[in-house]
Sulphatase-modifying factor protein (Haliscomenobacter hydrossis), 254 residues
Amino acid sequence: MPNPQPRLYEQTLMGTNGQSCPFQLVEVKGGVFQMGSEDEDAYDWEKPVHPVKVSDFWIGEYVVTQALWKAVMGEEHAPFYFQGDQRPAERVSWETINEQFLPRLNEMTGENYRLPTEAEWEYAARGGINHSRYKYAGSNRLKEVGWYIENSHRETKPVGLKKPNALGLYDMSGNVYEWCADWYEGSSYYQKCKDEGTVENPTGPAQGRYRVMRGGYWDFFPWSCRVSFRGFDPQFDSGDVGFRLVVSVLQSAG
């Protein structure tokens, strides 16, 4: 029996410039999955593999585009290195996203958008409840699903040009790294496995120095684009890093 297609919802935002800007979200049904990797190319901070349970949520079909960023923040707050309305919004810091972009977006939409947790991100990248053990998001062949150093011509690409994963999510391997909500801690997987069985809706350490980034980017190597790879960054803005929207309950979808 074929798996049902995830529900897709399009929300239309009336931008600061008076023009409408649609964006799409995919419903992700919650479940338990095996987070992390024990593969030969896995780093210590991806181990051990451990069971994690996540609740239902909605996630952006694409990373936030420059068009959506400008619709929320205005043309005067568009710091992107690579210009193009359908390219990812990059050079945006974790703080700017959380302190400026998301509050404005939520006021405009009446929703409660946020960054994904690291667990939500990996669960979605693996395909959700019908998750696979693909190395990348939707394939074991990175060229099918992602932009990276060997095919990007050293620039970001418009979203949605590669094959999506099982949930219909695009560019979760390559193009730009994606900010997650969590603080990074290299030993956190070990601690979770020591203290608990199945971890439910983990949100990461209470504090830290770095924030988690996931997915790899346009000017780096395939190993960084694996769905289990955990990047981290001291929260600065970079042409390598964008973000994807998540919301626990999408009020407007009913």
